[in-house]
């Protein structure tokens, strides 16, 4: 019984002195407190499935743990023991809906619930909760999301419970967990904060609980509250209590336990109550762990290492604060799996140290995070812009008074006589010291979907699809460019005095330094700055050497940049982030240029062309009238794009359609005289492969842009050129010139009317290497000759498709796979089911090609020849 422990007896049982009535008051208040907490937490197993025991038996067992750590001479006065007991009662008691006055609806309004719900729906594709759309939650998904939110918030919520008021529906009376008003008012806040502290970083305890709380009026003045001492004891005894009382075998049989929780149940069910030998906690197993229980044993090893760290850290703080040491300084066997197996035994297998090991971490990061992964020499700049954009998106999601329009990414080249420096600044969400020293340095750790992101920015994960970073390797690409890198950052809601600098002085070959930001290394205008020191000849030589790695097809970026070429750098940055919805500027050679066009979806065609031409379109004709055919693709945001069609444009290498993902350049694609930008999605970590945009399948866009194009044609040549482009895209304008017949230019509509009147259609196909094809006539005699075949039709554009002498013409027409046979099918349908296709091959020798006359006619209406 907890009431039999030394610490309970010394605090609450009569001592035959003048303070016994105070002890009695504290004891009765605690017993009432305990009874009400027991009622509050009885629904935890149903609301958070899979947890090991979190009922009163767990809370009572912590008194036993306190005895083990403190012994007979613990040094706690009765008031401190009351506060400790209260913190024990509350530390896990908020893992229930009953802790929230607003119940389930209050929990569902929390960012933690939103994060949990988003995780359940999309983070694990194999989970039963995964859906591909934002459909309403079913009861099971909601239940698990509520449980996860309760688990995440429980420590923070525990701080409120000691003073929280509930209203009884029976008589509308106010009820509290601590009934004694004076005790609640004096000790309630300390109890709540100490309960909360069991989830703090241990280094935060002296900062937040460093004040000794004075004695309650009426109690002995010596009964002050050393909050640090109590908080350290609580976090250690809570960590320690992992014996079989937490995981009874029968209880496991009647509860629903998931696969992850099962390993906790398995190892705790086999552990005995710890004891102390040679100043170390000793845990032993009731029997050896069998092979199938190896995962549980490994989890046990990790857990005991955690307890060992807690004890060591607590005792270090005891020394610093001149507080009594715990009787245990660590946990036996935690220095290696082999050592622990002497206490927590195994059968039929041998535990090995660690899981996997990378001997040369710098080499791995250079290889996978640098030139061997990223084929583009501009990947470092692209990745830094991407990270800055994500930071701004995140801040806009979290801070009500900050929008994407307020975001700014500044890129700056500082060229002095001695060195060249690149700085990238943003006013996004920023990084705390924790993120700087853990997440940023953890190669392959993706921040936005992590528990650290949930902890730092609750609610952010419901919008995780907005972010661009996903692999946790992009930052390491900066070492392609520099070995001297400085990262200065602070969280957006902290003062500039909180800015920290992570300083890489020798790249990945040595450990970075963490230091406070000096003057000039912080600012109210930005939250994060990445600074790279570059070689003076970086732009002329080093970047050219990196170009060697730019070998994948389609990566058509002109890599020739001169050190002082402001225009060239502006174009490169515009290519990298032109469609970003965030303002990006480039400062170089004393000038500032805008390098993103946030309103690219809505701006005028001229503004669009002026911004993207040099970087993306690369047209030599800056007065091209077909720019005005610029039209949005049909796909809705965030996909879609804006492109124009030009039959006359001549472009330099690389021009075409630039593919972006959320505003960051991916690659180029070439599509039949189409120019512009398209939002798609990448399919690999190097960000150079993408889901092919279906521009040629966007029939509404093609029809619209072709129609606009004809309004800008100045002559018949441009109209025919535009028809040629339309044919390649599967859209011919039926009312524009397309054929020559009887010395005249006619449209498709006019041809159809003639065929309907004459029930006859005839063309000549000339033999080439690919077979017999319908070619544009090379001789002007079909118009100016003294004698022409008045019924023969000649094309003004190339019609794709050919036939062989042994071809099944009927099948080719019935199942067309080219523009020629599509036209022939339309004509056969026009002439009706009685139409007949005739094909006559004529062989020629010498300089004249053999040819084929293809005729379609109605059997009942054969014209005279």
From TrEMBL:
Name residues in a coiled coil: none
Give a yes or no for keyword Chaperone in this entry. Answer: yes
Record's superkingdom?
A: Bacteria
- Family annotation (Gene3D superfamilies): Histidine kinase-like ATPase, C-terminal domain (3.30.565.10)
Q: InterPro entries per the record?
A: HATPase_C_sf, HD-CE, Hsp90_fam, Hsp90_N
Q: Which UniProt keywords apply?
A: ATP-binding, Chaperone, Nucleotide-binding
Q: What family does the database annotate? A: Belongs to the heat shock protein 90 family.
The protein in question is named HD-CE domain-containing protein
Annotated organism of origin = Cellvibrio mixtus
């Amino acid at each position: 019984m907890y009431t039999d422990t030394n610490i309970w007896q010394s605090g609450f049982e009569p001592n035959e002195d003048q303070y016994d009535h105070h002890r009695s008051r504290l004891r009765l208040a605690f017993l009432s407190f305990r009874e009400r907490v027991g009622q509050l937490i009885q629904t935890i197993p149903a609301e958070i499935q899979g947890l090991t025991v979190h009922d009163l038996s767990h809370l009572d067992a912590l008194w036993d743990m306190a005895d083990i750590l403190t012994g007979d001479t613990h040094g706690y006065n009765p008031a401190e023991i009351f506060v400790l007991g209260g913190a024990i009662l509350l530390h896990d008691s908020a893992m229930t809906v009953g802790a929230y006055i607003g119940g389930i609806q209050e929990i569902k309004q929390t960012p933690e619930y939103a994060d949990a719900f988003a995780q359940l729906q999309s983070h694990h594709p194999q989970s039963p909760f995964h859906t591909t759309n934002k459909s309403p939650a079913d009861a099971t998904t909601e239940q698990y999301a509520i449980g996860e939110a309760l688990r995440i918030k429980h420590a923070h919520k525990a701080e409120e419970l000691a003073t929280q008021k509930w209203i009884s529906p029976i008589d509308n009376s106010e009820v509290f967990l601590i009934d004694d008003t004076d005790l609640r008012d004096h000790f309630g806040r300390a109890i709540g904060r100490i309960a909360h502290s069991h989830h703090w970083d241990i280094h935060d305890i002296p900062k937040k609980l460093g004040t000794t709380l004075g004695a309650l009026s009426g109690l002995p003045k010596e009964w002050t509250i050393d909050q640090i001492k109590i908080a350290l004891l609580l976090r250690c005894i809570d960590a320690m209590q992992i014996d079989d009382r937490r995981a009874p075998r029968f209880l496991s049989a009647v509860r629903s336990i998931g696969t992850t929780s099962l390993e906790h149940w398995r190892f705790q069910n086999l552990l005995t109550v710890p004891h102390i030998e040679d100043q170390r906690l000793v845990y032993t197993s009731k029997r050896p762990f069998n092979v199938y229980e190896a995962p549980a044993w490994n989890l046990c090893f990790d857990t005991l290492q955690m307890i060992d760290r807690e004890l060591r850290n607590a005792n270090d703080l005891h020394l610093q604060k001149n507080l009594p040491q715990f009787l245990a300084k660590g946990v036996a066997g935690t220095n290696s799996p082999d050592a622990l197996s002497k206490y927590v035994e195994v059968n039929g297998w041998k535990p090995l140290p660690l899981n996997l090991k990378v001997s040369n971490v710098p080499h791995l990061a250079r290889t996978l995070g640098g030139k061997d992964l990223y084929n583009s020499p501009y990947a470092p700049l692209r990745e830094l812009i991407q990270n800055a954009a994500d930071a701004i998106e995140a801040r806009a999601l979290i801070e009500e008074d900050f929008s994407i329009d307020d975001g700014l990414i500044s890129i700056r080249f500082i060229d002095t006589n001695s060195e060249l420096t690149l700085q990238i600044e943003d006013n996004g969400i920023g990084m705390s010291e924790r993120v700087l020293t853990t997440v940023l340095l953890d190669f392959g750790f993706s921040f936005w979907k992590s528990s650290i992101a949930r902890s730092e920015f609750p609610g952010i994960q419901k919008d995780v699809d907005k972010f661009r970073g996903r692999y946790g390797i992009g930052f390491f690409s900066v070492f392609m460019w520099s070995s001297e890198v400085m990262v200065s950052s602070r969280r957006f809601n902290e003062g500039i005095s909180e800015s920290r600098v992570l300083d890489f002085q020798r790249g990945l070959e040595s450990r970075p330094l963490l230091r406070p930001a000096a003057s000039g290394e912080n600012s109210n205008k930005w939250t994060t700055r990445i600074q790279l020191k570059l070689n003076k000849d970086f732009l002329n030589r080093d970047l050219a050497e990196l170009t060697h790695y730019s070998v994948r097809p389609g990566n058509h970026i002109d890599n020739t940049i001169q050190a002082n070429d402001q225009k060239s750098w502006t174009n490169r940055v515009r290519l990298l982030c032109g469609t970003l919805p965030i303002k990006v500027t480039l400062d170089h050679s004393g000038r500032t240029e805008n390098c993103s066009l946030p309103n690219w979806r809505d701006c005028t065609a001229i503004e669009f062309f002026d911004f993207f031409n040099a970087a993306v379109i690369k047209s030599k004709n800056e007065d091209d009238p077909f720019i005005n055919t610029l039209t949005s693709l049909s796909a809705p945001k965030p996909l879609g794009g804006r492109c124009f069609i030009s039959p006359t444009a001549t472009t330099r290498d690389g021009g075409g359609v630039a593919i972006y993902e959320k505003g960051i350049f991916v690659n180029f694609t070439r599509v039949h005289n189409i120019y512009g930008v398209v939002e798609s999605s990448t399919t690999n970590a190097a960000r150079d492969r993408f889901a092919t945009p279906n521009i040629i399948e966007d029939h509404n866009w093609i029809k619209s842009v072709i129609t606009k194009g004809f309004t800008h044609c100045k002559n018949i040549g441009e109209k025919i050129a535009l028809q040629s482009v339309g044919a390649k895209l599967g859209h011919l304008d039926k009312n524009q010139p397309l054929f020559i017949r009887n010395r005249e230019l006619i449209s498709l509509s006019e041809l159809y009317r003639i065929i309907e009147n004459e029930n006859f259609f005839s063309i000549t196909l000339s033999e080439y290497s690919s077979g017999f094809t319908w070619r544009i006539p090379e001789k002007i005699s079909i118009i100016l000759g003294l004698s022409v075949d008045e019924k023969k039709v000649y094309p003004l554009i190339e019609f794709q498709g050919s036939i062989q002498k042994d071809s099944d013409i009927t099948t080719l027409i019935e199942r067309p796979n080219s523009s020629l046979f599509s036209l022939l099918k339309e004509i056969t349908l026009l002439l009706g089911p009685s139409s007949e296709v005739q094909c006559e091959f004529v062989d020629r020798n010498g300089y004249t090609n053999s040819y084929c006359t293809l005729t379609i006619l109605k059997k009942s209406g054969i014209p005279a020849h």
